[in-house]
Write a structure and sequence with these properties.
- 4 copies of one chain form a homotetramer.
- By secondary structure, chain A is α/β, with parallel strands linked by helices.
- Chain A has 2 domains: 62 residues, 2-Layer Sandwich (Alpha-Beta Plaits); 255 residues, Alpha-Beta Barrel (TIM Barrel).
- Helices cover 35% and strands 20% of the residues of chain A.
- Chain A contains 11 helices and 15 strands.
- In chain A, strands 7, 8, 9, 10, 11, 12, 13, 14 and 15 form a 9-stranded parallel sheet that branches. In chain A, strands 2-3-1-4 form a 4-stranded antiparallel sheet, with helices on one face.
- The longest helix of chain A has 17 residues.
- Chain A is elongated and about 75 Å long.
- The two termini of chain A are 46 Å apart.
- Chains in contact: A-B, A-C, A-D, B-C, B-D, C-D.
- Chains A and B meet through helix 2, helix 5, helix 6 and helix 7 of A and helix 2, helix 6 and helix 7 of B.
Amino acid sequence: MIVVMDLRADEKQITNVTKSLEELGFKTHLIKGVERIVIGAIGDRKQILSSGIEVMPGVEKIVPIMKPFKLVSREVKTDNTIIRVKDFSIGGEELGIIAGPCAVESWEQLMETASLVKAAGATAIRGGTYKPRTSPYSFQGLEDEGLKLLAKAGNETGLATITEVIDEKSLDVAVEYVDIIQIGARNMQNFQLLRAVGRIEKPVLLKRGLSATIEEWLMAAEYIMSEGNYNVILCERGIRTFETYTRNTLDISAVPLIKQLSHLPVMVDPSHATGEWKLVAPLSRAAVAAGADGLLVEVHPDPVKALCDGPQSLTPDNFAELMKELIQLSELMGRKVN
Amino acid sequence: MIVVMDLRADEKQITNVTKSLEELGFKTHLIKGVERIVIGAIGDRKQILSSGIEVMPGVEKIVPIMKPFKLVSREVKTDNTIIRVKDFSIGGEELGIIAGPCAVESWEQLMETASLVKAAGATAIRGGTYKPRTSPYSFQGLEDEGLKLLAKAGNETGLATITEVIDEKSLDVAVEYVDIIQIGARNMQNFQLLRAVGRIEKPVLLKRGLSATIEEWLMAAEYIMSEGNYNVILCERGIRTFETYTRNTLDISAVPLIKQLSHLPVMVDPSHATGEWKLVAPLSRAAVAAGADGLLVEVHPDPVKALCDGPQSLTPDNFAELMKELIQLSELMGRKVN
Amino acid sequence: MIVVMDLRADEKQITNVTKSLEELGFKTHLIKGVERIVIGAIGDRKQILSSGIEVMPGVEKIVPIMKPFKLVSREVKTDNTIIRVKDFSIGGEELGIIAGPCAVESWEQLMETASLVKAAGATAIRGGTYKPRTSPYSFQGLEDEGLKLLAKAGNETGLATITEVIDEKSLDVAVEYVDIIQIGARNMQNFQLLRAVGRIEKPVLLKRGLSATIEEWLMAAEYIMSEGNYNVILCERGIRTFETYTRNTLDISAVPLIKQLSHLPVMVDPSHATGEWKLVAPLSRAAVAAGADGLLVEVHPDPVKALCDGPQSLTPDNFAELMKELIQLSELMGRKVN
Amino acid sequence: MIVVMDLRADEKQITNVTKSLEELGFKTHLIKGVERIVIGAIGDRKQILSSGIEVMPGVEKIVPIMKPFKLVSREVKTDNTIIRVKDFSIGGEELGIIAGPCAVESWEQLMETASLVKAAGATAIRGGTYKPRTSPYSFQGLEDEGLKLLAKAGNETGLATITEVIDEKSLDVAVEYVDIIQIGARNMQNFQLLRAVGRIEKPVLLKRGLSATIEEWLMAAEYIMSEGNYNVILCERGIRTFETYTRNTLDISAVPLIKQLSHLPVMVDPSHATGEWKLVAPLSRAAVAAGADGLLVEVHPDPVKALCDGPQSLTPDNFAELMKELIQLSELMGRKVN
C-alpha cells in the first residue's frame, strides 16, 4: 500500500501518518521523491482500507498494491478449476454449451427446445422460472411449476439443468430441482444471496453485473467461495455503455483477462450481451476464439411467440447451424464440444 | 407503438405483421413513407413487448411510444407527493436533511453524531447496520444491535431514523425499529425486496442503481407502489462513468428531470456520489439549487477512525457550516430547512 | 418521422404542429392512441431535424424513423465494398493484416519490423509519424522524416504502408508517401479533416472515436464519402467504459453490426483496444471469428525500448505465432491470409 | 513512480528492472512487502512512461504518483487566474455569462438576441459560425459572413464575442473578429489546433470532450499553455454516459474538482449538457451554487425556427428570468453578475 503525501505536507503531518500506520500494524518505508514524499506501508490491506488514513491532513491519496481477491486468484491456485455437472464438465477441454428459452413457458415448449438443443450438441438446458423483470407488469415466470418441468426435461434428455434464483426462498426450492444455480446480473452484488449460494454444494453460475468492474465481479465470486462453495462459473453477459444499437456491450476482453487473473471457468452469454439474435452466432464464435469455456445461448422454438426475450433468441435450426461451426472452431482451439 | 418495416419488406410480410398485431389486440395504421412502411399500433404496450413482433420477417425495429411507468408518473398524479415522517416531511416546502455515519459503530459514536447533526438542523439520522460491502472481508455492520442503537438515538434526539435493508430478513427487523427503510443502489433491481418494501407502510428511500437509467429507476419505484406502498422517496447518488477522479458521477440533471416525470420527492446523496468529503458541500448546494427535496450526507465525529467511508464523511463542524449555507440557499429557492 | 404529442396536448396544439409539418413539406398522418396522439410525418429527415418542431407547445418528443446515413448504408449498396491497395485487398476473401510499431523511430527499427511482419504474412506496415499524444511533453513523432522511411520500407518489402494524419498539413505530405491514410480515434469527428480526406483518392482507414456511437462513426464515414472518396475502411479500436483493467473496451459486436448496416470493410485494432500485449492474440482471433475483414496490430522489435505504447506491442515472434493461428482460423471462416 | 513486481518475480528479474530504472536516471527504493516486491522509482515521470519498463519480465504494473499536468496545476500557481475580456472578467468575483444562439443565422436574429441578453445582464454573445455537425447534410454555418455579423453585434452592444473554430483556417479568420476563441468538445484532443490557439493571445474557452477524463481535459489545457497562451477558460458541457433521457450527463462534480486541481476558471454549458431547455435553468443554478465561474447558455429569439439546437435554446424571456434568479444566487455565493 502506498500513501502519497501532498506536495505541501509538512514534517509533522508525515510523522503523524507514519505513526498511525504503525499503530495499525504496518511497517513503513519513507521514499523522498523529487517533488513529494511517498510512504510505502507493508501489511494487511484490509486494515488500511477500513481506516481513515486517507483523510489525515497532508495525505493526497492512497494507492493499493495488492489485489483484493484471494480465493478466486490464479496466484493462489495456478491450475484451472474444472467443474463437473452430470456427464459434462466446464473449465477443462470440453466446452459447456447451455441453451434454452428465456423462460419456461410450458412442458411442450421446454421439451421441444430441450430435445432439439440436445440433438445439436448442447450439454445443459436453461430456462427461467423466477424472472427478474424490469416492469412489475411483465410475465414473472412459472416459479415452482417451472422448476419441476425443468427437472423433468433434464431427466428425460440427460441434459444438465440451470435456472436463475432471485432470493433465498427461490434458492431453497431450486437447489432441489436443478444442477446449476444461476445468479443473474442484477443480483451480482446481492451479498446475502451470494453467501447463501456459498453454503450449497451445487455449482453456481455468476453473471457479471451490468456495470460491475472485473474486480467487483471477482469479489462477488470471492463472497461465494469464502462460504465454502468453490464451484463458481463466471459468465460475461455484456456491460452497460453509451452504445444503443446493442442492448449491452459484450466485453470480450474479459474472457482472456479472467483467465489471467483467476483459475475459475468463464463463459459468455451472447444473447443478453446484444439483445439481437442475428449477432449471436458471430459473437459465439468470437467467445470461443477468445478462449471462453462455454456459452449460454437463448433458444426458443418460436421466437415470435416467446413470452420474453424473443428478439434475442435463436431458432433451434439457427442453433444447430451455430453448433456445427463451433465444433470445428473448438477443435482449432484445442477444445471440444460434447 | 410504432413498427418500422425493413426497406425491402414485401407485401406479404407487411400483411403478416399487421395480422399478428391485430391478433394481439392492436388497432393498426399503415403509413407509407418515402422509403419505407411504418405501422402504428394502438393498444397495450405490455402486449407488444412480451410478443416477438420484433423478430418477424421484414420488421426492422419497434419504437415504443408510451412510457412504461404509471403509478410514479406525473401524468397520473400532477401534484407533488409529500411524505411525512415524525415531525418532518419530504417533498413539500421543507427540505429533508438526513445525516449520520456510514455505519453505526457504537452508542457513543452514534449519539455524538446524532446530537451534533440535530443541533445543526438535520431532520433525520442515518446509520448503516446491515452493510453491503464489496469485499466479504470488510466490516459488515452491527446488525440488530445497531438497529436498537439507532432507534434509541432517534428517541433521545427526536430525529427520524433511517437504515438500509439488504434482504427480507433484515427488513423484518428494521421495520420495527426505524422510521424510513432504505434500499441501496446495489439492490435497486432486487425485485423481491422491492415487492417486500411495497407491502410495508413506512416510507422507503430508493437509491438509484449505479448503472440504472432514469426509466429503470422509476420502474423500481413502480414495483414498490404496485404493491401498495406509495411513500417512495427517490435518491440520486451518482452513476458509474469512465471518470476516475470521483468515485461516481453525480447526475444532477436527474433532479429536475424526475420532477418533470414524477410526483415523487427526490433527494441527493453527495457523499456516495463523489467519495470525497471536500466535494460534499459544493454538491449539496448544487442539489438544492437544482430543486432537490433533501440531502443524505455522511457525517462522522472522527472520519480518520471511521470503520467505513471515512474519506467521504464530513466532520460535525463541516456539516454545521454547510447547514448554515443551505438555510440561506433554501430560502432563495422558496424552501426551508427545519 | 414520428411526432409524439403530450398527453395533455389540446386540439389547437395538434393543429399547429400538423400545419408546421406541412409547411416544412411533410405529409402527415394522425394516429389517435389510447392515451395520446401521434403524428406520422413523411418527408425528408433533414428538414425536421433542423426545425424546432420538438419545442412546439404540446410536443413531447420526436422519434426519427430513417437512419441518417445514406452512402455508407447497405440499403444503398448491398454487395461488400472491396478496397484494393498494392497487391492486396480489404473487404473481400483476403484478410488485411496491418502490423508495425506505434511510432517510426529509426530506419533500423522500422526495417527490422517490416521484414519480420512481412515474413509472418502481414500485408501492410503501419508506423506513426505525426503522433497525437495526450501530453505535450511526450514524443511527437519523426514527422516528414518518418514518412520517407515508411515509404522506403514499403518499397523494399512490397508491403503497403499506412500512417495517421492529424491535420490537412500532415495529410498533404503523407498522401505523397503512403498507400493508406489513417484518421485516428481522436479525430473521428474532426469534420474538416474528414472532408479533406474525402477529396483524395487513396483509401482512408477511419478509426472509431473513443465515445462514438456506431451511428456517429458511420456518419463520419458518410462525410468522407460525401466528398467523393468511397474507399473507406472502418476500424474498431475499443470504446471508453467504466472498466479500468483494460485501457478501452473492445466492442466486438460492432463487427457483425457494421456488416449488417454497411457495405464498407471493418477491421479491428486489438492493441489499442486493450493496451496489453497479452490480450492481443485472443482478441485478434475473436475479431476474425466475428467476421472482421482484417487486423491492425502493434509490433515492435523491442517493446521494452519502444518510444510509445510498448506495453501493448507484440514482439515479432509473438506476431508470427499469432499469424499461424490466424491462417487456420481464417480458412474456417472462408477467408484467407495473404 | 511505483513499479509493482509480480508475485512470482525472481531475484534476477528484480535486479534487471532496478538496473533499467537506474539507467533511465531513476533512484530506486526496494520495498519488500508481505507478498510481493515493490520498487519506488524517483525521477522524471516522462522517462518511465515512454519506456517499456511495464513489459519487462516480472513486472505486474506501474503506478504513476505525480500528476502529469504542470502549468495548469494549482500546485504551481495557488491563486485563481482571472481573465479579462473587454469590460468583464472571468475567474474573479464577477460571473461570466455568455449567451446567444447555436448558430449565427442572420443579422436580425443575432442583433435581436444580443440586445435582449445584454439587457438581461449577459457579458458576452456567442454564436456559431463554423459548425461541426454530425451529418454532412446539416447546416454548416455562415462562416466568415457570420464572423462579421458577430463582431458588429459586439461593437453595437458592447458585449464581448465568442465563436468556435474548427481548424487553423477558421482560427486565422476568427481571431481577427472575436474576443474569445472556443475549442469545441469534439476538438478537445485536436492537438494541432490546441497548439495553434496556444500561439495567439486572445482567451481560449476549452470545452471538455464528450468522453474526456478530467486529467485529459487538463492536459489539453496544458497543450495550450505550453505554447505560451495562459488565458484558458475551461467549460464543462456534459459527458457521455448510458443515460438517454438527457443528451449528455452534466458532470457537476467537475466544477469543485477543477477548482482544487487547477487555478484556471471553469464555466458550465447547461444547454449542451442536457439538450433540453426545460433543464437549463435548474442546472444553471446548480452550476453557480457549485462554484462555477460562469455559464454558456443557448438563447434564440424563436427556438421553433432555429437552424440548430432549437430544443435546448431558451427564449429571451426565459433567459431574463433565469438571470434574475442568478443575481440573487451569485450574491449568496459571494459573487456578482455584471
